[in-house]
Write a structure and sequence with these properties.
15% of the residues lie in helices and 29% in strands. It is built from one helix and five strands, in the order βββββα. It is elongated. The structure holds zinc ion (ZN) (2 copies).
Length: 85
């Protein structure tokens, strides 16, 4: 595996526990910081890696968002449509 992480403590391969986990959502709502969380099963050491390139583009409005979340723009538009009907 090309992007395999090696534990700096015990030099064993680390497991990807969370992909594109959103950090600091309250402070940076417009530009959320996403991280990949790796954990070593052997010694429990945890490493965070920036995962900004992992955003997906919404096919409807073109907004970039995390694959774990729904598109915020479309969710907002849907809410407005429902209110107008
Ligand atoms: Zn380790
Ligand atoms: Zn959208």
């Amino acid at each position: 595996m090309a992007d395999e992480k090696i534990c700096p403590v015990c030099k064993k391969a680390m497991t990807l526990k969370e992909k594109s986990y959103p950090m600091g959502s309250a402070l940076f709502k417009a530009d959320r910081f996403h991280v990949d969380i790796y954990a070593c099963d052997t010694c429990g050491h945890v490493e965070l890696c920036e995962a900004k390139s992992d955003l997906v583009k919404c096919p409807v409005c073109g907004n970039m968002h995390s694959p774990k979340e729904k598109c915020a723009i479309c969710a907002l538009n849907k809410g407005l449509d429902t209110a107008n009907q």
